[in-house]
Design brief:
The protein has helices at about 20-40, 40-55, 65-75, 75-80, 85-105, 110-130, 130-135, 135-140, 155-170, 200-215, 220-250, 255-280, 295-300, 305-310, 315-340, 460-475, 495-505, 510-515; strands at about 15, 15-20, 175-180, 180-185, 190, 355-360, 375-385, 390-395, 420-425, 435-440, 445-455, 455-460, 480-490. The chain has about 525 residues and is of the alpha+beta class. It has three domains: about 5-150 and about 300-340, no CATH class; about 150-280, no CATH class; about 355-515, no CATH class. Strands 6, 7, 8, 9, 10, 11, 12 and 13 form an eight-stranded antiparallel β-sheet that branches. The chain is flat and about 85 Å long.
């Protein structure tokens, strides 16, 4: 609907004044948002630090500005709606609070931060109503892009990039051998490291694609094609970038090629790719520049929304009171859950294993898993009669929470900022998680990881978090044990065979872990 200049279609703000029907609801919303920022300040500060300090998330600094612009685009249509508190918004607010609580009790930062953002979004239907929320549906959903996500995709993207790179390397006539994310060429050994996974550009491209699809297109088919391009193109482009580095290294050497990669590709290559995507989509833009972002006539005539507004109308004062009660409840529950502590033995020991004896721990390259916040940690080496060795790492936690997460980032077999790099996934045994690691381009290590929590025995970090959530929601204290069996490659029997023999000798895995956790 075009603006006719009538009072009914005036923007929400005239100069510095606000349309009368919007003044009090906006004040209530602003007060609730201020409260949410204060109550969940630690989560917001953690997100801002990630936006600022981690290059993967630098683009998220711009998302709040984009949000303001998206709402400003809709200001004239919004002025024609009457804000009113809704009980459905209260249900959404309670769901967002529960999401934050689940993240809080499990130590899952991503879920906790998503809950904090969802609380902001749920405040809109709660205090401004369903029609206003329908008009602001895209800006509210777009808030998801201020939540720092994507690190979970790094290993998969490393593997995909490595396969694209080796295919292009072979196609260009360069002899090369791939081993996980490492590519060996005549010019040297190259690693598709985490920084080379392309996750940074992929997340930014997805955020851009979703925005452009909404602003520039009306056709859902064209929107889908753009989003597909924003997903596929950066992944392929990153493979080309990695191949370009390897190809250049064959000519000018690895040092010059690496510098060229960081300076030229890092600053220009992806900017060119983004520009090409925009230029490719430009001619297909089908939203007229003067067209409003909201079909206000259809929104006002929608009978479902009208019926829901009548039935779910809620007193704003009651809505705010119930919000305060929900916030107090989840904060208190999270505090109780975070301070749960199961009783632990004064000390733990590595048990005897038939056919295996304890020997001095002397790895070719020092390897020590990280288990921050655990009360007990053991690292030792076993050898059998033939001299075959297996390394055992055990960490015991009285509970899981902030700063003591067995499956947290950087915890476990691969410790950040060491000489060890992730090489590839490996087949897990007995529900464990297998990983292959490489140090100094020459020492390979296989690691099998398990978590033990109550009746759970699994190598899945997600399953551990779900078990911890169940414990803490029930305010039940359970200890958590992290077990890693590992072995270096290069001995007479390969690492997988040695770990399998050690496991067979140690007996049932759950019982063996429980014996260690009990101090026996």
């Amino acid at each position: 609907m075009a603006d006719t200049g009538s009072a009914g279609s005036a923007p929400i703000m005239r100069g510095l004044a606000i349309v009368p029907g919007w003044r009090v609801p906006l004040v209530r919303l602003g007060a609730l948002w201020l409260l949410l920022f204060v109550v969940f300040a630690s989560d917001w500060m953690a997100m801002v630090r990630q936006w600022w300090d981690i290059s993967t998330y630098n683009h998220m600094i711009l998302i709040p500005i984009v949000e303001v612009w998206l709402v400003w685009q809709r200001r004239r249509e919004l002025a024609q709606l009457e804000p009113a508190a809704s009980a459905l918004g209260l249900v959404l607010f309670a769901g967002a609070a529960l999401l934050w609580l689940l993240g809080g009790v499990s130590g899952f930062d991503l879920v906790r931060q998503a809950g904090a953002v969802a609380l902001l979004a749920a405040s809109v239907p709660l205090l401004l109503g369903l029609r206003v929320s329908a008009a602001l549906l895209f800006p509210l959903c777009y808030l998801v892009f201020i939540v720092p996500f994507g690190e979970e995709m790094v290993k998969s993207l490393q593997t995909i990039t490595a396969h694209i790179t080796i295919a292009l390397t072979h196609a260009s006539g360069i002899p090369a051998v791939i081993d996980g994310v490492f590519i060996d060429t005549p010019a040297g050994l190259f690693e598709v490291a985490e920084a080379c996974s392309g996750v940074k550009f992929l997340i930014a491209m997805i955020a851009f694609g979703v925005l452009a699809a909404n602003v520039c297109f009306v056709s859902w088919r064209r929107r889908g094609v753009l989003l597909l391009a924003c997903l596929v193109v950066p992944i392929l482009a990153n493979g080309v970038r990695a191949w370009g580095t390897i190809y250049a290294a064959q000519i000018v050497g690895t040092r010059v090629a690496a510098g060229f990669d960081h300076i030229v590709y890092g600053w220009f290559f992806f900017a060119i790719v983004l520009a090409l995507v925009i230029l490719g989509a430009w001619r297909f833009f089908d939203r007229p520049s003067e067209a409003p972002m909201i079909d206000i006539a259809a929104l006002r005539a929608n009978r479902v929304l009208a019926r829901a507004e009548r039935r779910m109308r809620l007193s704003p004062v009651l809505a705010l009171a119930l919000c305060l009660a929900a916030l107090a409840g989840v904060k208190l529950w999270a505090y109780r859950g975070d301070h749960l502590a199961a009783p632990l033995p004064a000390r733990i020991v590595l048990p005897d294993v038939p056919g295996w004896t304890r020997v001095p721990y002397a790895p070719s390259v020092w390897w020590e898993p990280l288990a921050q916040g655990s009360e007990h940690r053991l690292l030792g080496r076993y050898a059998d009669a033939s001299g075959a060795t297996v390394d055992v790492f055990v960490a015991l936690y009285s509970g899981q929470g902030e700063g003591r997460e067995a499956g947290g980032f950087g915890q476990g077999a691969l410790t950040p900022e060491t000489s060890w790099s992730w090489q590839s996934s490996a087949p897990g045994i007995e529900q464990g998680r297998g990983e292959r690691l490489l140090a100094e381009g020459r020492v390979e290590r296989l690691a099998q990881t398990w978590y033990r929590n109550g009746g759970l025995l699994s190598g899945s970090n997600l399953e551990l978090k779900l078990a911890v959530i169940a414990d803490q929601m029930a305010l039940r204290a359970e200890p958590t044990t992290l077990l890693i069996l590992s072995a270096e490659e290069g001995e007479r029997h390969d690492a997988a065979a040695r770990i399998a023999r050690f496991r067979a000798a140690s007996g049932p895995l759950a019982s063996w872990i429980d014996r260690i956790a009990a101090g026996r």
